[in-house]
Write a structure and sequence with these properties.
single chain; about 350 residues; alpha/beta; Isopropylmalate Dehydrogenase; 2 domains; two-stranded antiparallel ribbon; 12 helices; binds nicotinamide-adenine-dinucleotide; binds 3-isopropylmalic acid; binds manganese (II) ion
Length: about 350
């Protein structure tokens, strides 16, 4: 089994190193090969997603990804920006189904920004469509306005679009996932305003006919953002488009204690997957050795389960993470009174020790 390891920028290399340590101690004989991606690849090869990196990703059974991006690249032409690497990988490999589980571990109930009773026992799954929507819709760009409130002035535009097959396949993924959980899907849309999301709602409703054992509810995205902090445990599986899913998953991360706790899996129809924390490269804390590696370590567990057929090893990693939290070890983002503050490497070492 071959894994492409793409650390990227900022805290990416720090957190991926910890996940690699954890994978190595399992002794599964995984073949891991690293390649530059994002800003690091731009520096090394003049492109955020070099041919060789894409080739390695294509040839691998799974990809372990850190994060890309830094403020210093924000003025580059868009195709050269680090973020194009992750968008390019998702598109090139057809990774349309993004799983972002928001689980509040018992030990971290106090680290959440919500009251303990609202998050204790929380286990929700956000399923974000990942290769369509306004992220990839064409046309997009800048031009001189021909109409609108200021004709003749400069304007910018993007295109929000979804095709029926794109919605059907992500809806099926959500209903299938709900079947293995609490059998409830909340489809999040903006059908009251956007044609794209009225269509989304209609298609999800049609697909639901094949899943009568699963409860389907529809919710507008603004309400969903509110309900997520009002009564998050009322959700089971949330399915939504690329942009709403991006925003709601960051919001949901705080229910678990920190964005440093939220893993993700991005899958295509061949079960090949890219595994990355839901957070970014965190330039504000990069190089300080304080980033929380648990989201990345938990993403590695998802990789073992979804792409490598190693469910038992995945269970072991998740149990080790819980054990380390039970020992009271905390990176600064999840630290609270009475617990022990540790750095990125110490946290990774503790998970490795718990696995031994
Ligand atoms: P971010 O997720 O990188 O950081 C947001 C905040 O969360 C920061 O205060 C950061 O310190 C904190 N944080 C994030 N991960 C953490 C961790 N593991 N442990 C502790 N604290 C953590 O989002 P941002 O600041 O908006 O973006 C920074 C860069 O990352 C941008 O260039 C953005 O485009 C990029 N980004 C990349 C990805 C990706 O590679 N998939 C995802 C999101 C953002
Ligand atoms: C994420 C990130 C990416 C996204 C960016 C970096 C392109 O925010 O993975 O959540 O918007 O999908
Ligand atoms: Mn995001």
């Amino acid at each position: 089994m071959k894994i492409a390891v793409l650390p990227g920028d900022g805290i990416g290399p720090e957190i991926v190193a910890e996940a690699v340590k954890v994978l190595e101690v399992l002794g599964l004989g995984l073949e891991m090969e690293s390649a530059p991606v994002g800003g690091a690849a731009y520096e090394a090869a003049g492109h955020p997603l070099p041919e060789a990196t894409l080739k390695l990703a294509r040839e691998s059974d799974a990809i372990l990804f850190g994060a890309v991006g830094d403020w210093k690249y924000d003025t580059l032409d868009r195709p050269l920006r680090p973020e194009q690497a992750i968008l390019g990988l998702r598109k090139a490999l057809g990774l349309f189904a993004n799983f972002r589980p928001a689980i509040c571990y018992e030990q971290l109930v106090g680290a959440s920004s919500l009251k303990p009773e609202l998050v204790a026992g929380l286990d929700i799954l956000i399923i974000r469509e990942l290769t369509g929507d306004i992220y990839f819709g064409q046309p997009r760009g800048r031009r001189t306005a021909e109409d609108g409130p200021f004709p003749g002035s400069e304007e910018a535009f993007d295109t929000m679009r979804y095709s029926r097959p794109e919605i059907e396949r992500i809806a099926r993924v959500a209903f299938e996932a709900a079947r293995k959980r609490n059998k409830k899907v909340t489809s999040v849309d903006k059908a009251n305003v956007l044609e794209t999301f009225q269509f989304w709602k209609d298609v999800v409703t049609e697909v639901h006919k094949d899943y009568p054992d699963v409860q389907l509810e529809h919710m507008y995205v603004d309400n969903a953002a509110m309900q997520l902090v009002k009564a998050p445990k009322a959700f089971d599986v949330i399915v939504t488009g690329n942009m709403f899913g991006d925003i709601l998953s960051d919001e949901a991360s705080m229910l678990t204690g920190s964005i440093g706790m939220l893993p993700s899996a991005s899958l295509n129809d061949r079960k090949q997957g890219l595994y990355e924390p839901s957070h970014g490269s965190a330039p504000d804390i990069a190089g300080k050795g304080v980033a929380n590696p648990l989201a990345t370590i938990l993403s590695a567990a998802m990789m073992l389960r979804f792409s490598l057929g190693q469910a038992e090893a995945a269970d072991r990693i998740e149990a080790a993470v819980k054990a380390v939290l039970a020992q009271g070890l905390r990176t600064p983002d999840i630290w609270s009174e009475g617990t022990t503050k540790v750095g990125t490497q110490q946290m990774g070492d503790a998970v490795v020790n718990a696995l031994r």
